[in-house]
Design goal:
With 71 residues, the protein is an alpha+beta fold. The chain has two helices and four strands.
């Protein structure tokens, strides 16, 4: 999942701390936004989203479960 959030310079460290707690990575940082890359179980991802919503979600993409059979 990729999550783009509003992130004023004063809020970035708070968001990064939450992301690190959930073992996420910061994929991109802009002047007033950042993108968090999330990999994990659906329940864990939903819990992270609840914590990040107050910061202002700008965009969200989810891939869902994917599978491929072995050749």
């Amino acid at each position: 999942m990729l999550v783009k959030l509003k992130a004023a310079p004063g809020q970035r460290q708070e968001i990064i701390s939450i992301a690190e707690t959930f073992r996420c990575t910061i994929a991109d940082v802009g002047l007033d936004a950042l993108v968090v890359q999330v990999v994990g179980e659906t329940a864990q991802n939903n819990a992270l989203l609840q914590l990040l919503k107050p910061y202002g979600l700008l965009e969200l993409t989810r891939t869902g479960e994917t599978a491929m059979s072995r050749p």
